[in-house]
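Justification of computing resources. Each target in the renewal requires a structure prediction run like the one illustrated here; the chain below, 449 residues long, is used simply to show the kind of job we budget for.
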Amino acid sequence: MRHWSLKLKFGVYAATLSSIALLAGAALILPTVYFRQRAELDRQLSQDAHELFRDLENFKGAPVNGRSPLEAKFIPLALQERYVILKGPEGQILYETPGLQARSFTDQSTGYVNAPLGDKQLRVGIFDKAPYSLQVGSDLDQLKSMQKDLLAGIALAAPLTALLVFAGGFFLGKYALRPIADITAAAEQISINRLDDRLPMPLSRDEVARLTEVLNDAFDRLKNSYEAAIRFSADASHQLKTPISIMRAGLENLRSEESLTESQRKDVDLLLQQTRRLTALILDLLLLAQADSGRLILDAEDVNLSRMLESSIDDLEALTFDKSVSITRDIPDEILMRIDERRIRLALQNLIENAAKYTPPSGEISIRTSIENSHVYILISNTGKPIDPEDQSIIFDRFRRGKQVGENIPGHGLGLNIARTLIVAHGGDLELTQSDNLKTEFRLSLPLA
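Resulting C-alpha cells:
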C-alpha cells in the first residue's frame, strides 16, 4: 500500500473500518437478538403454563385432587404444540406429550433452562402451583434458524457494504484531496525560471490553506537565498577576473626574464598552469551564474554542425595522440542548424575532453549522429572503466566527480554541468545512456528548428 494514492488508501481504510464496524455490530446484535427471542419464548411458556393452571381450576370436569391423570382435552391448544410433562403432588406423571416418554426434562424445581431431548435442544420452563408441577419445553430450532438467517444476511451485506463504502471513500477522498492536487500542479510549475510563481490559496481557511501559506513562505525564502547565492557567485567571479589576469600577466613577464634559473622557470611555469586553471574555473562560474540568473544570451546563427563536429574530432585526435586511441565517426556532410556556435562548441569541447581523459591507451572513441523526430542526436562513447552506478545520478551536478576519477585527472567537476546547461538553453538535452564494461555513452540532442 506504500505506493497507492491517498484517495485509494482513503477508500480502502473506509471500507476496512466499515467492515470491522459491521462485524462488531454483528457480534453485538446476534447475541442480543438471541437473548431477546429467548426471553420472549420464556414469556410465552409462562403464559401457556398459567393458562393450563387456570383451566385446571376453572374447567368443569377437571381433576379436583391433583392425583388423577389428565385427559388431553384439558390441555390448551398452545401447549399441545409444546413438550409438556405435568406431575402430581407425589411426582406421578399426570400428563405428558404423546410419544415423549420422558420422566423429566430437568431436576430444577423452578425457572428456565436449556435441556436436550434426543438430537434437539429445548427451552424448558418449570412451574410449580400446588398440587401440580409443570415442565413446558419448546424447540430452540426456530431461534437458531433466525440466528443463521441473520448471520447469512450480514455475510451477504458485508461485501456490498464494503464496496459501497470504498467507492464513497474513494470519491470523497478525491474531492477532499482536490486542493492538494491543485497545489501539486502549481508547485510543479515553479522552477529557477519561474521563481516568482506561488501556490494558489484555497478559499477555505483550513489545514490545506495553512499548508499553502507555509509553502509559499518557504518558496519566498528559497528565492531570496537562491538570488543571493547567484549574486555572490557572479560578483565573486567577476571581481576575481581582474586580479587573476594581473597575476597571469605578471607571471608571463617574469618567465621572460633571462636571469631566471631553470628551477625558477619551472616554478613559474607551474604557477602559470595553476593560474590558467583558476582563470578557466572563474569563466565557468561566470557562465553558470549567467545561466542561473536567466541572463545567458544566445547569439544564434546558421551553422553547419557537421563541420563543427569534424573540428572537435581534430581536437580529440590531438588530445589522444600519445595514447593510440582509435576514433570512429559517423557524421553526414552537412547538418544545417541555427544555434549559438560558441556555446555549442564549448559543450562539445567538454564532452570531447571527457572522452579523451577517461579512455585508456589503445581504447576506442566513437562519435555518431542521427536525425529523428526533428532532433539531431549526437552520441559520444568511449571505452574504459564504467561510471559507478551510485555516481551515475550525480555526474551532472556541479563540483561532483565520480569515485573512479583519480587525482591525476584534471578537472573541477563542472564540464558536464556546463555542457548540459548550454544544451538545455538551446531546447535540447544531454544524458548518460550507457556506462558498463563495454562503453560509456552520452547522448546530446538539439532541436532542428
